[in-house]
């Protein structure tokens, strides 16, 4: 087996830590993040569903970019809701 040592390959960015925000959520509350965080947020929700009595659901959504103007352009986001 041949192993080549590389230089100049950037280290991947740290994954965001959503646990702090998820812990603070009450039933019926939600938040959204960019679609690039789909996997991290889904994994965080799954871990919380398994380890606590809280229940979360994560979905990809199309929502207005400007929350204060429902008629503004829409974009893709990932939203998590606390169910229980």
Describe the structure.
- The protein is built from two helices and three strands, in the order αβαββ.
- With 84 residues, it is α+β, with helices and mostly antiparallel strands.
- The protein has a domain at 28-82.
- The protein has a three-stranded antiparallel β-sheet with strand order 1-3-2.
- The longest helix has 14 residues, at 38-51.
- The protein starts with 18 loop residues before the first helix and ends with a strand.
Number of strands: 3
Gyration radius over CA: 17 Å
Unreliable segments of 5+ consecutive residues:
none
- Helical content, roughly? 10-25%
- Secondary-structure-based class equals alpha+beta
- Can you summarize the main beta sheet? 3 strands, antiparallel
Question: How large is the count of helical segments?
Answer: 2
Mean pLDDT: 93
DSSP strand content: 25-35%
Give me the side-by-side strand order of the main sheet: 1-3-2
* Mass-distribution shape: flat
User: H/E series, N to C?
Assistant: HEHEE
What is the first-to-last residue Cα distance? 52 Å
Sequence-ordered SSE layout with sheet pairings:
Elements (H helix, E strand, L loop, with lengths): L18 H6 L5 E4 L4 H14 L4 E9 L9 E9 L2
Antiparallel strand pairs: 1-3, 2-3
Based on the model shown, name its key terms:
single chain; 84 residues; alpha+beta; 3 strands; 24% helix
Task: Write a brief caption for the model.
Helix content is 24%, strand content 26%. It is α+β, with helices and mostly antiparallel strands.
């Amino acid at each position: 087996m041949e192993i080549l040592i590389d230089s100049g390959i950037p280290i991947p960015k740290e994954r965001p830590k959503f646990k702090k925000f998820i812990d603070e959520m009450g039933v019926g509350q939600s938040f959204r993040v960019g679609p690039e965080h789909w996997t991290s947020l889904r994994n965080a929700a799954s871990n919380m569903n398994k380890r606590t009595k809280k229940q979360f659901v994560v979905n990809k959504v199309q929502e207005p970019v400007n929350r204060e103007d429902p008629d503004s352009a829409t974009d893709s986001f990932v939203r998590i809701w606390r169910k229980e």
